[in-house]
UniProtKB/TrEMBL annotation:
CBS domain boundaries: 85-147, 168-224
Biased composition (Low complexity): 38-49
Source organism of the structure: Streptomyces cyaneochromogenes
Region spans: Disordered: 1-74
Name of the molecule in the record: CBS domain-containing protein
Pfam families, per the entry: BON (PF04972), CBS (PF00571)
Amino acid composition bias (Basic and acidic residues), ranges on this chain: 1-15
Keywords assigned: CBS domain
Gene3D superfamilies: CBS-domain (3.10.580.10)
InterPro entries: BON_dom, CBS_dom, CBS_dom_sf, Diverse_CBS-Domain
SUPFAM superfamilies per UniProt: CBS-domain pair
């Protein structure tokens, strides 16, 4: 990702950060979030470039989901949803009572679960928000004040349900196991969802993927970045031990003594490594 993308993402994060002191863990978390958003933005840009043209009737032709092609020799493998999804995935039947759904969320320690029919097709998703609305109606059956907007009225009416099927949000937003992780990340960001059911081509539940799973897949940890940087240095220099590499939250610091003629090219090559946020040049040019 380019320095421009990282800079703009960082500025946006600072604008939206609450006016309170950061904890020691906050800055690395904000940096990881910024890198995640940059990856999602790159995926969105690629998607828009590949969007099919709208037909004269106003309909956009749908592309069928097919098995992912195998990478050719010399090309890096593309991460797919199947590589990062959680299996098995917790789910609830449509006729499960409200209290049992609440117990399931608590037991599984998740914020939402897919609702499935008798054939394991995903028909919706029931979340803590749905249950919270139900609990509010149970505590105060009659609302005060005028009727709100349409979505508020729908939420209020839905919250009178007693089963997962009557409380759930539908239609569900799902992803396919063969989809790229970047596309699934775009889907999660666009729909503002923390968890996405993963379904096969018949709509049956095969797993679930969370934003945390996608984040970990999109952003490599510092150890992986350091290993690639050291490998790259080994290909550039006769003596790979002439330069030492340290990585902290995607920032690569390079120290050592080198011929000044090779320093600019080496720094540029390290800066081009995926998920490198910045390169600190502490090399003594000789």
């Amino acid at each position: 990702m380019s320095d421009i993308e990282h800079t703009s993402t960082g500025k946006e994060a600072r604008r939206t950060t609450p006016g309170r002191p950061w904890t020691p863990q906050e800055e690395p978390r904000q940096d990881a979030l910024g890198r995640y958003l940059a990856a999602v933005a790159a995926a969105a840009s690629a998607r828009s470039a590949q969007e099919p043209e709208v037909a004269p009737g106003g309909e956009v032709p749908q592309r069928p989901v097919t098995a992912a092609p195998e990478p050719s020799a010399g090309q890096p493998a593309v991460l797919r949803v199947r590589d990062v999804m959680q299996v098995p995935a917790a789910s609830v039947p449509g006729d499960m009572p409200f209290l049992d759904v609440a117990h399931t969320l608590a037991r599984e320690q998740v914020s939402a679960v897919p609702v499935v029919d008798a054939d394991d097709h995903v028909i919706g998703v029931v979340s803590e928000s749905d249950l919270l609305a139900k609990a509010a109606v149970m505590a105060e059956p009659h609302r005060h004040g005028p009727v709100g907007r349409m979505w508020q009225r729908r939420l209020y009416e839905k919250s009178h349900g007693d089963t997962a099927a009557t409380l759930m949000t539908f239609p569900p937003v799902t992803v396919h196991p063969a989809q790229r992780v970047t596309d699934a990340a775009w889907t999660a960001a666009h729909a503002r969802l923390k968890r996405l059911p993963v379904t096969d081509y018949r709509g049956r539940l095969v797993g679930v993927v969370s934003r945390r799973d996608l984040l970990r897949a999109l952003i490599r940890d510092d150890a992986e970045i350091r290993a690639e940087a050291e490998s790259l240095i080994g290909r550039h220099l006769l003596d790979p031990h002439a330069v030492q590499v340290a990585v902290d939250n995607g920032v690569v610091t390079m120290t050592g003594r080198l011929d000044k003629a090779v320093v600019p090219e080496l720094l540029a090559s390290v800066r081009d490594i995926d998920d490198v946020a910045d390169v600190v040049d502490d090399i003594e040019a000789i």
